Amino acid sequence: MRSGKEHGVATETPGQESQQTLSNLMSETRRFEPPADLAASANVTAATFEEADRDSLAFWESTADRLTWARRWDTTLEWNAPFAKWFVGGELNVAYNCVDRHVEAGLGDRVAYYWEGEPEGDSRTITYADLQKEVSRAANALEELGVRKGDRVAVYLPMIPELPITLLACARIGAIHSVVFGGFSSAALKSRIHDADAKVVITADGGYRRGKPSALKPTVDEALEECPGVEHVVVVRRTGQDIAVNDRDIWWHDIVDRQSAEHEPAPHGAEDPLYILYTSGTTGRPKGILHTTGGYLAQTAWTHHAVFDLKPETDVYWCTADIGWVTGHSYIVYGPLANGATSVIYEGTPDTPHKGRFWEIVQKYKVTILYTAPTAIRTFMKWGDDIRAKFDMSSLRVLGSVGEPINPEAYVWYRENIGGSRCPVVDTWWQTETGAIMISPMPGVTAAKPGAAMRPLPGISADVVDDQGNSVPNGGGGFLVVREPWPAMLRTIWGDDQRYIDTYWSRFDGMYFPGDGAKRDEDGDLWLLGRVDDVMLVSGHNISTTEVESALVSHPKVAEAAVVGATDPVTGQAIVAFVILRGSVEESADIATDLRNHVAKTLGPIAKPRQIMVVPELPKTRSGKIMRRLLRDVAENRSLGDVTTLTDDSVMKLISEKMPAAK
Ligand code: WT7
């Protein structure tokens, strides 16, 4: 592990408030050493950290050297803060790097994707040679439709092979893709098509979700009523359901299947745009996060190789995210393919047709690396331990987590029940904006602590600062920042440089501010505490929702918890908790008292919730994040705000009914 002196840990005294609060909150002492055999042949060792500490630009050059360049770059970094250009003058083709070069290296028969549809028995195996042909056909089709380098292509597809194929076809010709998650409404789709000024939309009749076909095309039709700029809509036939066919529509099989399976990949500039991906944030218009070509591919590929210890000859890697999110862009499509990995893609939900579907897939494909989200892990905990016991998961060797802070108990459950206590768990912190993993344990190096993202990756200068922007010492807490540019960083917000500056580079002078709270423990390891707006102020103490939630989940009866601060006449804000009990647990009269005492014992009396509600479900966005804003509405007895981004809005009705004040 690194020395602990890196990145100028300063000696300034942090704000007293954050010091006081955070010192009494963390008492996690469990540590899991890397398995000896994994450490012995790990892709990354302590030497990699030392190398990057000595010369980070040389380190980033070595990551770019893992790619195949049509023209080598002249300048590694041009930093006109906060605007970065990486590998300036270099030229490469992303699709060539992800597909063709592996075929040329004799690996055409290697499986790129095991695709598993939601209906059982509906699966496809796609080799790198297959992918090369499919991507070439799709690229030829896009060109026939008039798509040229720099044009924007909106993509609204279920998790079917045509989704990665479309992204690679765009990358191949230099068109900029803008994927809109298939669960979003027509209004969301329309605003994104407008903002990016997309010329073509790629969609499907529908996809399978929860055991039945779920339509997509009608949503596109509705969105396009007010999108005159869209010239063509290409429709994949997936479910065969009835759809309206309009003038602009053309079936994927009609235009793609008849194309030549050869397509010359032109080199593109390292800084040419690769894609736009919208992130909703908590307020205002969605932001079109812009990623470019060379630095993005170098960093996603290297981090995928490093953080998951990927051995492409033998590993079977499965990231359960939807390609509609950045996790899917970076760690289902670009990173894994650039590394020549074999991946699993699954179309549907984890409970279809039964709650063991994930483990059945792990067993079927002998998955060795699994990357999923805390929300999924807590759902599996809730379903009970006996479900996964029916499947052979001995192939697994590395587990990953992403999307929100993972509660220590969920981490330990994941490690023991899914990983058989032998697999390291990497808790990876990053964002749509960072493009690639920034903070994470390394499976062959780090003695990981449950719930901690641990240390910045080699080359990443992440730090924790107080509200004046001074580094906090070990044991302190404050705001996460990144001090130096990194290759996969967003380049701007599409069409709005000023908003890019204001959102990310204005809170602290010269530093990137991701919007997350964090603390650095006595050993110098990092704990992410969620968005800074998820901090409660109780009787003058800053308490993070994450820490109270983790304390609740550490009680044997609790599967999942969401905590909010509600206005309180006495304490300013009071803690209100919503909990879901584990599968076999009955709700008893004294459960609330038990849990309140448990939190007091774990975190201290100041963190004791005023109120604890046992609920059947929690409101979540489609990317699995808890919508605390709505819970705050309930806790403060207000009518509910906007519920349109919820996966299931009946959840809020169930919760409101349980709240005594709201009855
Ligand atoms: C926000 C970014 C990165 C892909 C998925 C989410 C939270 C993400 C962790 C983690 C604690 C995490 C942060 C971050 N987050 N991973 N391992 N520990 N928090 O991408 O939708 O852009 O969300 O997710 O708050 O800022 P995103």
Task: Characterise the protein shown here.
By secondary structure, the chain is of the alpha/beta class. Helix content is about 30%, strand content about 20%. It has an 8-stranded mixed β-sheet, sandwiched between helices. A hairpin with a 6-residue loop joins strand 4 and strand 5. Helix 6 packs across helix 7 and helix 17 crosses helix 18. The longest helix has 17 residues. The termini are far apart. The N terminus is likely disordered. The site of 5'-O-[(S)-butoxy(hydroxy)phosphoryl]adenosine has 22 residues, from helix 12 and strand 25.
- The total strand number stands at 30
Which ranges are low-confidence, i.e. pLDDT below 50, for 5 or more consecutive residues? 1-25
Shape: globular
Mean pLDDT score: 91
Q: Share of helix among residues?
A: 25-40%
Alpha-carbon distance between the termini?
54 Å
Which structural class fits the helix and strand makeup? alpha/beta
Distinct small molecules bound, one entry per kind:
5'-O-[(S)-butoxy(hydroxy)phosphoryl]adenosine
**Spatial arrangement of strands, main beta sheet:** 12-11-8-6-7-14-15-23
Q: What about the largest sheet? A: 8 strands, mixed
Estimated radius of gyration: 24 Å
Counting H and I runs of at least 4 residues, what is the number of helices? 20
The proportion of residues in beta strands is: 15-25%
